[in-house]
Amino acid sequence: MASPSSTMPAFDTHKAVKALRHAGFDDVQAEAVVDQINGAITENLVFKADLAETERSLAARIGACATKDDLAETERSLAARIDATKEDLAETERKLAARIAACATKEDLRNYATKEDLENYATKEDLAQLELRMTVKMEALTGKMLRYMGGGLALVVALIKGLDLLVG
Questions:
Q1: Domain residue ranges of the chain, discontinuous segments joined by +
Q2: Which of 35, 99, 103, 142 measures 20 to 30 Å from 160, CA to CA?
């Protein structure tokens, strides 16, 4: 802090004491009043050095604050990050939708008979493959059944003809 004598405006204490004496104050009263006035002036004065220090401090604090350009850049950066996050979420949603679509629905599951089938085949693709295999097996069984039925029918016809020959 600068000394009061180097930067303070001049307060002529001698002149003030003389003026107070002329106004009817005695020496002790005049000096006491002037000392009080001088003290009040000195205490409340802001010196140039104090102002300069305050200015430097404020300049440093202002320099540490973000500028409009800094804030705009931060806003652009955050907007880009938000857009990237939205894209990531959309991609994740697409992947989940694809995985969900591959899963069997309740209706798909109702079309299959056994609990074991349901436990073994969880996706639509698995169920479609199971259905294809079951269809092939059923067609093979149908063919065997028709052959057996044809053979059985031929046997019945032969027996009827044989009985007819024996009886007739």
A1: 4-65, 70-167
A2: 142
Query: Which residues contact residue 114 at a Cβ distance below 8 angstroms, ignoring those fewer than 6 apart?
Result: none
Backbone angles phi, psi at 103, to 5 degrees: -80, 150
Q: Are 34 and 16 in contact (CB under 8 A)?
A: yes
CA distances from 130 to 56, 71, 90, 124, 133 (A): 82, 61, 33, 10, 5
d(CA 104, CA 124): 5
Neighbours of 34 (CB within 10 A): 21
Any idea of the CA torsion for 133, 134, 136, 139, to the nearest 10 degrees?
180
Q: Residue 12: enclosing H or E segment and its boundaries?
A: none
